[in-house]
Q: What sequence folds into this?
């Protein structure tokens, strides 16, 4: 939907035929809903955007003449290897192929391919329509021109790319996310706070701030620059970590998981997860709209 909104013609392919028609129906429906609620991105009406998206059950047809392909098969190294092998045989020499992989690096599945110089990871964040971050993770064999092309393509379609300088497991988002979950887990396990209060630290505190400035700019603003922050707070931060942090890695144990889930189920029972996910996406849509409007205001002030 994002590529189509930006004016590109898109072709969907899936090994399961029913999946292609379901995806086309759901895309049409979703775009119409976004239009109704003033959330539609890009150019043209929902109908015009949906018309830019076609589907096929033939991989060769899908790749014919494509300048860019985004692979989204399940996160399984053997499967990615197999699918990338098929793509490698069918793709044009100048087609760029990005994997949506959340953890696997291109070196793990594309090392021996003819077109490996055109292959990298471009990891979106769910739901990408409202969370624009894309982690670009090139392999050592990915050409620099390909990395640059993917980054500018992501900007062109309205996403916000970052580029890792080398392949690292967990990329960036999951490393930051795991560090955060680890501390939440430890605080719960040691009986410091309830689940509700731990989550509130983010929803009412850190998360609100981080929607606008990241942790590093926070250091910069919370003192007279990062150096001054370190002069003032580095010892304190070091001591807190030494006294409270637990050895890494943290393994999320079942006993604690069951206990956290029991608390969460009072607020979100398992049969209401889907409704809660829709609520989350609506909230993210509102935030995305707010951020895009404030960006426009800031640039008209410049
Ligand atoms: N779901 C997310 O929130 C999310 C976010 C970012 C990245 N990712 C990554 O995207 C990839 C896909 O994840 P997902 O959650 O969308 O998976 P999914 O299981 O929901 O969808 C995978 C699709 O691939 C199809 N498929 C399976 N084998 C295939 C084959 N051989 N050829 C063509 N199509 C095939 C399936 O029919 C299915 O429609 C994974 O690498 C995942 O890590 C997922």
A:
């Amino acid at each position: 939907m994002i590529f189509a909104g930006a004016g590109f013609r898109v072709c969907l392919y899936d090994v399961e035929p029913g999946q292609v028609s379901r995806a086309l129906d759901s895309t049409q429906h979703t775009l119409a809903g976004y239009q109704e609620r003033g959330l539609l991105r890009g150019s043209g009406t929902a109908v015009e955007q949906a018309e830019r998206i076609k589907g096929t059950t033939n991989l060769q047809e899908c790749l014919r003449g494509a300048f860019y392909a985004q692979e989204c098969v399940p996160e399984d190294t053997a499967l990615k290897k197999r699918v990338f092998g098929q793509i490698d045989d069918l793709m044009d020499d100048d087609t760029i192929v990005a994997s949506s992989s959340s953890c696997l690096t291109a070196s793990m599945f594309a090392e021996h391919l003819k077109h490996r110089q055109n292959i990298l990871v471009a990891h979106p964040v769910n739901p990408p329509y409202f969370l624009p971050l894309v982690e670009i993770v090139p392999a050592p064999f990915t050409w620099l021109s390909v990395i640059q092309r993917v980054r500018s393509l992501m900007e062109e379609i309205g996403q916000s790319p970052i580029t890792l300088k080398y392949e690292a497991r967990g990329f960036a988002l999951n490393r930051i996310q795991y560090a955060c979950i680890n501390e939440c887990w430890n605080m719960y396990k040691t009986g410091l706070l309830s689940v509700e209060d731990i989550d509130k630290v983010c929803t009412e505190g850190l998360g609100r701030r981080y929607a606008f400035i990241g942790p590093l700019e926070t250091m910069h603003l919370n003192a007279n620059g990062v150096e001054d922050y370190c002069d003032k707070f580095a010892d304190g931060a070091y001591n807190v970590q030494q006294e409270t942090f637990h050895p890494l890695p943290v393994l999320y144990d079942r006993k604690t998981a069951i206990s956290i889930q029991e608390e969460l189920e009072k607020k979100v029972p398992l049969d209401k997860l889907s409704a809660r996910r829709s609520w989350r996406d609506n909230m993210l849509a509102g935030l995305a709209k707010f951020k895009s409007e404030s960006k426009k205001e800031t640039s008209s002030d410049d």
Notes: The chain is about 55% helix and 10% strand. The CA atoms of residues 290 and 296 lie 10 Å apart.
